[in-house]
Amino acid sequence: MANAFFSDLLATISERGRTLLRRAGPSDDGQDASELIELCEALLSGRGEASGTAMAREVLDRYHDLDAAGRLTFFETLARNFGPDREKLSQAIESWRSQPNDSDASDLHFASEPRRQELIRRLNRAPGGTSELVAMRADLLSLMKGNKDLAALDRDVVHLLSSWFNRGFLVLRRIDWSTPANILEQIIRYEAVHEIRDWNDLRRRIDPVDRRCYAFFHPQLNDEPLIFVEVALTETIPTAIAPLLAAERQPVPIERARTAVFYSISNTQKGLGGISFGSFLIKQVVEELRRELPKLDTFITLSPVPGFMQWLKQADDVPVSDEGRILLESLDKPDWFENAELTAQLRTVLEPLAAYYFLKARTPKGRLVDSVARFHIGNGARLEKIDWLGDLSPKGLRESAGIMVNYLYRLEDIEKNHEAYANQGEIAASSAVKKLLKTEGRRLLDMRLS
User: What is the pLDDT of residues 102-159, one digit of tens each?
Assistant: First the structure.
């Protein structure tokens, strides 16, 4: 009710301000980037609340009329011409150098802020401004490829969006069959891990007694989930995805459920890329489930390994013999997993390689190769188990040779695991996974001795 009242009030202020703008002079249709920049300068120099709110709305509306080339020009101008006020910054630097104190440090801080940050703040005052800025950042990300000059602008946008979308503003809501259809449609559309084929498939994932779905929402994007997680309640830790998604499966009686399985996490807002909500989401859902179902004692994922096959084919550090590499060529056969003898041979090679991939392989910048692993290990989870042939879907076979993994979230160990990874790069892993790595080490030694 309060949000609706405030939104109506803001819209009224904006419309009155736009009336003032119209009196000042009509605007042409099909504005180009240079006229939009002039309007941005006017927005920064203005002080009136009504005219400022209206002008912010006008900037956003005119931005929509730009084509891709116009938007690129607009972003390039913001990056080039809307940096700090150099004169004020020089004065603040000189004052700091002559007599450093807390007041001068504060002046230096504010003088160094790019003007585009204040512009973005003022644009956010427009009705629907927050949603528009998220969409604008999605455009910026698309145009940044091969254009390093836009990096500073993106940092400023991320800096502000990170503040506006911090954990304190996010609201956790359960998604079930009574959730409004427009939100359910977005769950279907944005599911990024295991495709939801139709409404019946969606209902099987959110309606049974042993299924849950939760999403984070923001007050300014009330009907748009930011990120959502799908959860299966099971008796034991699963090692394959197909039984969880089967159309004819029998639901687990809730009194027998002991394990909560996070089997899919999907972001919905491209413009919020790089702003992490997932760690908060999982931890809050764990707390929610523990309150609802005190008998749950295991919280674990069943996760894809999207980068494994690419690493096998392209990386220079894959520790595999010539014989093993020849065997790996069998993965190009579409039905290799149906051959029991071949599957057994591939398992002896692929499981140790998967352990090496998670525990030893790194990008040139020293990061874990796999994006999903970076997410869960960075959140403090433990790499619990490598699941052979856990995903036989075309996507699973293409990306990971069917391998899936379980990451265990043990609440008493999360902070310790996170700190060890953040500070020393140590990956928490079970003895079973570490044993696979030792198997790989013995195999490499045999390779050298032969």
Answer: 777 787 888 889 999 999 999 999 999 999 999 999 999 999 988 889 999 999 999 9
pTM over 0.85: yes
108 token code pair: 């230096």
Q: Each residue of 2-40: pLDDT tens digit? A: 455 445 544 554 455 555 444 344 444 435 789 999 999
| Closest to 229 measured CA to CA, from 207, 252, 261, 201 | 261
Here the CATH number for the domain that contains residue 130 is 1.20.140.90
Determine which one of 45, 303, 330, 371 is catalytic.
303
Active site annotation includes 376: yes
Q: Does the annotation count 218 as an active-site position?
A: no
Q: Quick one: 234 and 115 in the same domain?
A: no
Other beta carbons less than 10 A from residue 361's beta carbon? 20
- Beta-sheet strands, E only, within 308-393: 382-387
**Domain with 409 in it:** 168-448
Q: Are residues 263 and 155 in the same domain?
A: no
**Strand 227-234 and strand 211-217: pairing?**
antiparallel
pLDDT in tens, 171-195: 999 999 999 999 999 999 999 999 9
Could you say which of 194, 264, 266, 376 is catalytic? Answer: 376
Q: Count other Cβ atoms within 10 Å, centred on residue 98.
A: 8
Helices and strands per DSSP (H, E), number in the chain: 20, 7
CATH at residue 434: 3.40.630.150
Residues 145 and 264 in one domain: no
